[in-house]
Amino acid sequence: MTHYEDYSRVKSHAAKSDIFAMFNASWATSLERSLHWIAGSRPTTIFHLVYSESSHMFEARLMDLLHGRKTGDLGDLSPSQLGRVSELQCMTVKEENEITDELGAWQESAWDLVTVSADNEGNIERLRFLLERADDLRLRTMQKVMEVLSTKQGVEFLIATAELQFGVRGWGLDKDQSRLDGRD
């Protein structure tokens, strides 16, 4: 988890220098950028990953579970854990939608950036604030989900998260290279 906290802190510092570079994300592949929500992944993606990994592991170990053997993995989430994850998801969706609405309002007023009379620094600061809120929501969501999971489940979830990130990155690199090579 410290990796996510460090990343969020460094990103916040970099946004103070050049907020637009955070949204452009020149270090990311075209695929990664197409999946971005306010310069990063949607916090609700975390819940999709929990549910899909849980379902996949549940199906893979169904016979063990039917025989009463607990596996302790993501496929063995308790009703209490599922309820807490669902509550977190509802709260996260609500806050994600609020931030999205605020970004929409910012985008509607973005044309003010090109006018001479505009408070450009105020508009840019507002965008920085939205990025900070989005990054904070991403980090808090990850932390809260990890609190719900057991240690074993948390490790499996972090592995699944890394596999997803590396998979998207790898596929994105392949697609970008294909386009550069003229194979698309």
TrEMBL record:
GO biological process: DNA-templated transcription
Coiled-coil intervals, chain numbering: none
Signal peptide: none
InterPro entries: Seed_Dev/Stress_Resp_Reg, TGA_domain
Domain DOG1, residue spans: 1-178
A matching Pfam family: DOG1
Source organism of the structure: Kingdonia uniflora
GO molecular function: sequence-specific DNA binding
Protein known as: DOG1 domain-containing protein
